Sequence to fold (116 residues):
Amino acid sequence: MDKVFIKNLQVFGILGIHAHEQRQPQEIRISVTATTDIKAAAHADDINLTINYSTLAKRITQFIHDHPSLTIEALIEALANDILSDERITTVWLRVEKPNAVPTAETVGVEITRSR
Fold:
């Protein structure tokens, strides 16, 4: 299978268990790899026959804006399910990072892989 990916998409959203995290949007970084079949799009040279990474980035950004979460675990699981609702995607690997959550770390986060 083929893969379409986005690395370190920067989104601002509500994510965290602390009061200040629930009031003020913070930087959230998303990386995603979606397994799909690109042969038809490659043959026809037609973006409509594949996963458009620009459209996927907008979908992820909107999802995070619409789904404030307390934990990365809740957000990443819901986001994976949303991405997998596109029947062209068979597997999704996601990484959600909060780069400003732990002052002494470059970033923290959770990675998952989900399949239909």
